[in-house]
Amino acid sequence: MDQGKKLLYCVEKHGVTIVVELPQYLYEAGWAASGNVIACTQPRRVAATSVATRVAAEVGTILGEEVGYTIRFEDVSHKERTRIKYMTDGMLFRETMLDPLLSKYSVIMIDEAHERSIYTDLMLGILKKIRRKRPSLRLIISSATLDASFFLDYFNLGNSPNESIIVSLEGRMFPVEVAYLREPTSDYVREAVKVVWGIHLQQGRGDILVFLTGREEIDRLPRTAGALSLLPLYAGLPNEDQMRVFEPAERGTRKVILSTNIAEASVTIENIRFVVDCGFVKVFPSLFPVCYPVHALSAQVDPYIQPDVHSFLSHRGPTSYASATQRAGRAGRTAPGFCYRLYPESVLPTLPRTSAPEIVRTDLTTPILQLKSLGIDDLIKFEWVTNPPAESVLRALEALVNSGMVDSEGRLTELFNSKEYKCGAEILTIAAMTSVQDVFVIPDGAAGALAELERRKFTAEEGDHLTLLNDSRAYGRMVSFACSVIPSYVAAVSIRAQLKKYMVRFGLPLDSCEGDQKRLRKCLVGGYWRNGRDGWPMERSELCEAILSVMFTRKPRTGWVVFHEMEETKKIHIRIITEIEPDWLLEYGHKLVEKRS
């Protein structure tokens, strides 16, 4: 039996099929007939968009017609004509809020399940629940070989022994020659540069993929170096910049992609012949042993120490054996290749087997709120793929109860501060503006001086949230002074349009506060109440350098602020800050938590 027939036989006979690699057969076999849709999820948006683009070409259709994709704030699909739909696992999770049984899908494929993103885990639990009510739904779980038996046991538990089956469909892989350093290096970024340059001077044709641990390391390197074209690839990069890595290198140049582990799986970049692997990921030392790897892209929250800190820790640890294997394999997707590991071969047996699932190391406030919106109130009975730490669950529930989103019985409440304060229009704009990175970037030279003078005209002394609101309103004037702001503002406009659709759908008013700054800031406190801070002035180093804060040079009259986000690198940084009155926190009934000693 060939691989295609083998796969189709398993999909027909079993409710859940777990595969190692999957060719595209289901569409041709008729699983998208009679108005049905085949869903394929990816942990990351760059994978969803790139795979959809490739499959559309293979099927012979225009992207957005029979084959489409949907990621956050971007939907390239047709409601009636799309039959294969790629999406992030988070987007499929959101669809369950509108259609709890996902009734339009005949087959749902969860790709790269071994990466264990939080929404992958949540979707697996929900899909297991859906299959009991809708057994006609077929699931395909695509996983690395090491994790396949784990998923088999998960889906068979509590079901018939024949609920799941493992099928190994080996894809075409070319041989990859692996080389190691003789001795450990004290600076793997510098070592990576040396190796890349050596490859360029001594090896034949082919592009280079370099694995580093985060944006701060990638930003250390230039964007051009002679005949080398260096392209960044990380989760926070705008989608259009991420897609640049798939474009062919210009004639006479060699492409060097500087990536976090976003490129470990799913993403197939043509002409990669060389991989340089630093061998490290960012580690969360307060939860795991120092040597234990943690996913390098996700916002980490320590549930035992700082529940409100989005931590991108500067401390790093070795990657897992599974990740090292995935990274090396990137060099052998389209031709024989080479992988240069920037550590001694003796380290390999000491690496952890796999990486820790995201659910054990992230803030659960939003995921639990979303589960409750689906009617899943009893979290103990929910079939978690891996149980989250009890402390994380308790902290999340405590935050939801204190915010008024969940009542004392653990049930979801109706709470919309923008409706109470009649400032839905402004909150909508602020939410969109805070969803994009680097909203305002000052160019170099004379253009930068003009841009800074123009920006100051729209500064709100109350803080950054209101300044972003002013900047958005002045967008048309700003374009002529600072072209570098355009992509972020265009993205914010798109995000606002998407959010507006949700507000209209749920009947939330889009009233304006008509310039009432106090009312608007009170509404912000309702959403940011956990992010209140006193003890101003803060150290200047605490202000995130990537975002210019109007509070950088001025002291709030009250000494109190709320902030949008807190991140931890070598120091704690807060970004997007607005002055508030401390009494406003108490008006919501929230009790101020005393600082821990």
TrEMBL record:
<dbReference type="InterPro" id="IPR042035">
    <property type="entry name" value="DEAH_win-hel_dom"/>
</dbReference>
<feature type="domain" description="Helicase ATP-binding">
    <location>
        <begin position="23"/>
        <end position="164"/>
    </location>
</feature>
<keyword id="KW-0547">Nucleotide-binding</keyword>
<dbReference type="InterPro" id="IPR001650">
    <property type="entry name" value="Helicase_C-like"/>
</dbReference>
<dbReference type="GO" id="GO:0003724">
    <property type="term" value="F:RNA helicase activity"/>
</dbReference>
<keyword id="KW-0067">ATP-binding</keyword>
<comment type="similarity">
    <text>Belongs to the DEAD box helicase family. DEAH subfamily.</text>
</comment>
<dbReference type="InterPro" id="IPR011709">
    <property type="entry name" value="DEAD-box_helicase_OB_fold"/>
</dbReference>
<dbReference type="GO" id="GO:0071013">
    <property type="term" value="C:catalytic step 2 spliceosome"/>
</dbReference>
<keyword id="KW-0378">Hydrolase</keyword>
<dbReference type="InterPro" id="IPR002464">
    <property type="entry name" value="DNA/RNA_helicase_DEAH_CS"/>
</dbReference>
<dbReference type="GO" id="GO:0005524">
    <property type="term" value="F:ATP binding"/>
</dbReference>
<dbReference type="InterPro" id="IPR014001">
    <property type="entry name" value="Helicase_ATP-bd"/>
</dbReference>
<keyword id="KW-0347">Helicase</keyword>
<protein>
    <recommendedName>
        <fullName>RNA helicase</fullName>
        <ecNumber>3.6.4.13</ecNumber>
    </recommendedName>
</protein>
<dbReference type="Pfam" id="PF00271">
    <property type="entry name" value="Helicase_C"/>
</dbReference>
<dbReference type="Pfam" id="PF21010">
    <property type="entry name" value="HA2_C"/>
</dbReference>
<dbReference type="Pfam" id="PF07717">
    <property type="entry name" value="OB_NTP_bind"/>
</dbReference>
<dbReference type="InterPro" id="IPR027417">
    <property type="entry name" value="P-loop_NTPase"/>
</dbReference>
<feature type="domain" description="Helicase C-terminal">
    <location>
        <begin position="194"/>
        <end position="375"/>
    </location>
</feature>
<dbReference type="InterPro" id="IPR007502">
    <property type="entry name" value="Helicase-assoc_dom"/>
</dbReference>
<dbReference type="GO" id="GO:0016787">
    <property type="term" value="F:hydrolase activity"/>
</dbReference>
<dbReference type="GO" id="GO:0003723">
    <property type="term" value="F:RNA binding"/>
</dbReference>
